[in-house]
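Handout, section B. The chain below has 153 residues.
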Amino acid sequence: MTEQPGFVYVIYIASTPERLWEALTDADLTAVYWGHRNVSDWRPGSRWEHVRADGSGVADAVGRVVESEPPARLVTTWAAPGEEGREDRHSRVTFEIRPYEDIVRLTVTHDGLGDERERSAVASGWPAVLSNLKSLLETGRPLPQEPWRVPAG
């Protein structure tokens, strides 16, 4: 059995655990820095959807809440909408929030990815989203351009 690839990203943000938790779980806030509304009640076992903020109602990812310990830890599964019923195709995202004085350390672990192509996509996506999140929490606004649109290389 080969191990599935994963990705870990750590970022430090001038914020509180409570405000960071809100930014990760409030659909209106996720729309501001992610371009998607993350919609759920965030209780273990509940469904969540990653719905485009353009008003189309299209969900680009879906999953289940595995763990929810506000404001310290959130674990969700991720799948393409067409693969929601195929748990063997789900990946898993863990958000760990640790306070230190006036900052928080956010560690995002995305594991159970299908292959290196998926790991590469995640490795370019998470830094862009989390940079936008950091800017929003520290300045009150996201970056002036969507960071995931910056050409590679």
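Note. The first strand starts at residue 7 and ends at 13. Compare this with the example in section A.
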